[in-house]
Design brief:
heterodimer; A: alpha+beta; four-stranded antiparallel sheet; elongated; B: alpha/beta; Rossmann fold
Chain lengths: ~180, ~600
């Protein structure tokens, strides 16, 4: 295959457009298989998923809300939106990034084990990051931390030197700023 | 008053209420309760195929030739997995299909039970939507919804998976009138955006080199869309070309018609696509067989795109005026807006454009060398066309060279007459599709234009045709090769015909007779007309016509992969070196 690509229909990904990172909120009927439907659409059409979270958010109408962070060229992002929108159980697809920087938060549980100076240092740094201790013994802490992904990543990086054992992250929950709600 | 009945009874009741007269299927353990109900009624007639894949293609042929929903009934496990190719085919070509699959009893799901498979998981990516029904009280509602989803918006296949215990269980039936309330989340947009339509019409009025490019969406929208298309095309005086799926929406005998476009389209249609200043895409999707090289696709044109599916817009080609809506609604509004223009545009302004098109037409890109002692495949189809042109004919095809030649040489003046597997390119589609069309139109002339390789992929359906006394004609252009594979090997792989020659073909005449049909053979051009006449005269039985054609004929014109519309290869007289030069290294890696 040539380096520069041929511009044929088979090399669409070689367009020069730059890729962007967008956050989508998708409201769906909470029915069996809906997660597989959304996830397999991404894998089947070769779209990226950087983060995916889902939970029921409207018990009465049995609606679930997906938050998907994905990357692509503007054309691909529009495709993702349209492809999601035509799935039968999908009520609405909102590209939160188009309407302005959305609020994005993630929660992580971070287990750190160690003794002595490192243990004290871990606790001190956790306070700086406003992480709270949700489980402890004389040899470990489990911290709960929320915030932007970048903050969580920074915290994890630091804890790596202080006896990081394991990490569990929720993925991103996101919402647009302002008074308006999702359609 | 709510009525209670078993799940199996509900299935039949819904089919009757939805106006289904024929279903295509194959029984098995997990659908026995439904088959028991079929046995005890006469409203819904069942057509027994010989393999479930044939059932879906037959339902596609039925749907495509009638505009109605095609219905399939198969059992669990292998019944469902055999249906997958047909479902994918229907998804790619937007054919409305409701496929009912049996499933093992709910308490056995997930246990690797006999003939169990994850039907919903397997068919999720190849259906518009699918359901597993776990409660008999949901069954009737889901089945009505299934019909609605299959036929509305951009049509497509749906699967309803029904466990055997749900078929036996008793529950409450709901009629379609009680479920017809607006769907919670699925609401296809039918009417186009008015300002966009107005803008489109103004662009049309100002265009110097306009072109309509229409697709299967016009046919899917229904006969009214085809009527409106004809009206708009005639009023504007613009030239029109169609995709493979769009043939018949506009009459091929009309002088504004440029023929099919795309990889094996006519020179004039592809050159017009390349040279137009305004492209009006109605119900087509800029498929890669149409666009060729995308960065050189119609470089000087503004593009209007009318499609009911928003995800078709800006998928492959960026357009200037997108209009989301049903073709019939949008065409109606466009005609109104065109009539309402302040000053009606002069048709004479297009004179230069038509003159240019006539020069391209004069190239006569479908020409081929006739031979005296060997039947050229193109000649066989020209003669076939001459004999069917005044008849009530439905043509299906398999996939390959014969399919492209049929698209080039058979002329369709009406929609729903041309049944072919466009998107998926499924060999083995044509015979069952012709059976489905013949079931729907018992008096019509239904012909499957086939290749010798494709026909063997669903040859077992001959047995179905015999059982129902269907006079389907299988017209095989027999060149003993997988012709399109061979052509690509010749053009792209140095004449190395790897596995594309079928060394042991059956005797098609004896094969037809063995099934209980009629077999015919013709290998000389001089005998062809009489043989075709004799073929058409056969009633009540399927027939295989083994038309022996030139073995190494190539399908031209052709836009090689990775090339633009104005870089077509024309005719048989191109040399091997020219072909090699034209295609280039990058093109050879493309499909």
């Amino acid at each position: 295959m040539s380096e520069k690509g041929t511009g044929s229909a088979y090399f669409l990904e070689e367009r020069k457009d730059t890729t962007e990172r967008h956050t989508f909120s998708i409201l769906v009927d909470n029915e069996p298989g809906v997660l597989a439907r959304i996830a397999s659409l991404f894998s089947g059409r070769g779209y990226n998923i950087e983060s995916l979270t889902v939970s029921e958010t409207d018990e009465e109408r049995r609606l679930s809300r997906f938050t998907v962070v994905t990357t692509g060229t503007p054309m691909v992002l529009q495709q993702i939106r349209n492809q999601l929108d035509r799935l039968v159980p999908v009520h609405s697809v909102t590209d939160l990034t188009v309407t302005g920087q959305p609020i994005e938060r993630e929660l992580a549980l971070v287990k750190v084990s160690g003794k002595g100076e490192k243990r004290i240092e871990a606790l001190r740094l956790a306070e700086i990051f406003r992480a709270s201790v949700v489980d402890t013994s004389t040899e470990h802490f489990v911290f709960e931390i929320t915030g932007k992904s970048s903050k969580i990543e920074q915290f994890i990086t630091i804890m790596r030197e202080l006896g990081l054992v394991e990490v569990s992250r929720t993925g991103i929950a996101a919402m647009a700023r302002g008074a308006q709600g999702l359609a | 008053m709510a009525r209670t009945m078993t799940g199996a009874e509900m299935v039949i009741k819904v089919l009757a209420e939805q106006g289904v007269d024929f279903i295509f299927g194959y029984p098995g353990g997990a659908v026995l309760p439904i088959y028991d109900e079929i046995f005890q009624q006469e409203k819904v007639k069942h057509v027994l195929v010989r393999q479930e894949g044939g059932a879906v293609h037959a339902a596609e042929g039925y749907a495509r030739s009638t505009g109605k929903v095609g219905v399939v009934l198969v059992t669990s496990g292998p019944g469902a997995t055999n249906a997958v190719t047909g479902l994918t085919d229907a998804l790619m070509d937007s054919i409305p299909i409701v496929c009912l699959t049996g499933q093992v009893p709910t308490h056995l799901i997930g246990n690797d039970a006999f003939q169990e498979c994850d039907t919903i998981g397997i068919t999720r990516p190849c259906t518009k939507h699918n359901w597993l029904v776990k409660d008999v009280n949901d069954l009737a509602r889901i089945l009505h919804e299934a019909f609605y989803i299959a036929k509305s918006g951009r049509p497509g296949p749906v699967v309803v998976d029904i466990p055997k215990d749900v078929q036996f269980a008793t529950g409450t039936y709901v009629s379609s009138s009680n479920t017809a309330i607006a769907h919670k989340s699925y609401r296809p947009k039918l009417k186009g955006d008015q300002p966009a339509i107005q803008h489109a019409v103004e662009l049309m009025a100002a265009a110097k080199r306009p072109l309509f490019y229409t697709g299967g969406g016009v046919i899917n929208s229904g006969p009214k869309a085809s009527q409106l298309l004809r009206e708009l095309v005639r009023q504007t005086g613009f030239p029109i070309t169609s995709t493979l799926m769009g043939l018949g929406a506009y009459p091929a005998s009309d002088k504004q018609w440029l023929g099919m476009l795309g990889m094996h389209g006519t020179y004039e249609s592809n050159m017009a696509m390349h040279g137009c200043d305004l492209m009006i895409n109605i119900g087509a999707r800029f498929d890669d067989r149409i666009t060729g090289r995308t960065d050189m696709f119609s470089p000087g044109s503004r593009k209007i795109h009318i499609d009911i599916d928003p995800s078709s817009i800006n998928k492959n080609i960026k357009v200037d005026v997108p209009i989301v809506g049903d073709c019939a609604y949008v065409l109606e509004d466009m005609i109104r807006a065109w009539r309402g223009l302040a000053s009606s545009p002069e048709k004479s302004a297009l004179k230069g454009w038509w003159k240019q098109i006539d020069q391209w037409r004069a190239v006569n890109s479908l020409k081929y060398k006739k031979l005296d002692d060997v039947i050229m495949p193109q000649y066989a189809l020209e003669r076939l066309q001459a004999h069917i042109k005044d008849r009530d004919a439905y043509i299906s095809t398999e996939v390959g060279q014969h399919q492209m030649w049929a698209a080039q040489f058979l002329k369709f003046d009406e929609p729903n007459r041309w049944l072919t597997s466009g998107g998926l390119g499924t060999m083995g589609y044509g015979l069952p599709a012709a059976i489905g069309a013949q079931i729907a139109h018992p008096k019509a002339l239904c012909i499957d234009v086939a290749g010798d390789a494709s026909i063997l992929m669903n040859i077992q359906e001959m047995s179905t045709a015999v059982q129902y006394r269907l006079p389907v004609k299988v017209f095989i252009l027999n060149n003993q090769y997988m012709g399109m594979v061979r052509q690509w090997q010749q053009l792209l792989h140095g004449n190395r015909y790897s596995e594309s020659y079928t060394e042991a073909l059956p005797d098609f005449v004896k094969l037809a007779e063995a099934y209980g049909g009629v077999g015919m053979r013709c290998d000389h051009p001089a005998d062809l007309d009489d043989a075709i006449k004799a073929m058409i005269a056969v009633k009540d039985k399927p027939l295989i016509f083994d038309c022996r054609v030139a073995a190494l004929a190539n399908c031209f014109p052709m836009i090689p992969s990775g090339k633009a519309h104005n870089q077509m290869l024309l005719g048989e007289d191109v040399s091997a070196e020219e072909i090699d030069k034209a295609i280039g290294k990058e093109g050879k890696v493309l499909v």
